[in-house]
Amino acid sequence: MYIGNECILTFEDPVCKDFLSGELDFEIIHIIQPSEPKSNLFIQTPVVIQCINPSVNDEAGKLKFSVQYKPSDRYHLKSASIIFNKKIEAYYEIRGRENTSNGNCSCQSIRIGYDSSLDMLYLEFENLNTHNENKVQISEYKSLTGENRELCSEINILEEKIFEKKKENEILISEKVRLQEKIQDIQTEVDNLEKIKEDISSLELKKQKLRFDIEQSENNSETSEQLLQKLSYFDDILSFYKNDDGYDKISEKLEGIKCEIDTIMKHIAVLAQKRADIKNIIDDELNI
Description:
The longest helix has 109 residues, at 133-241. The chain is rod-shaped. The protein contains three helices and ten strands, in the order ββαββββββαββα. By secondary structure, the protein is an alpha+beta fold.
């Protein structure tokens, strides 16, 4: 029977009474299949059947189950079942949003499936004596439940490790940013040092050029002084040869000097003769 996609399934006594006394128990199995499995995709398994707290009063008790299914493009419902540990015989009621169904049932399993063409859930009462496949489902369910618990435990451990790794990664990223800033500062300092080095090299070249210029200037100064001194000598010589009409020729100047020397020699000879005469007079007077 079709029951829609949301309803409340109720079983009246003796089901509720046996459940509360512990004579009756059940297992709920959901078989959900991913539609298009993808990597790194989290698929949350929907809970189609849930047990509601039993409703009890002085007259009778009711065992209730909530049934709800929302189709998704990530998964689809293969089946969901309530499997009792023994056969039940009771009055049931299925109360949906738009309609209500009721009647008597005799079964050990209630299976719910989904009809995609009508977009509706349907319900079937089954007897495990004639449907042994449900026993296989229970065994598979128990096995999968154990594996699921182990996987959940492993997932929790991995999630904790991932969380720790994310924290470490954040620290490393922060340290990387700090180091990059420090490297940038160092690179800026290196660039400044390179510029200073270039400036020093340029100043060194200027220093060498200035030193060379100074040495050249000092040499030029010495040479200039020597030249000035020599020129002064030449000036004295030239002044000696200078007359009112210009400069005498060397031969003429030498001839003039020779004449002056002859004249001086004559004067010296005269002076010498006078001296000799005076000496003779003095000697004569002394001899007297």
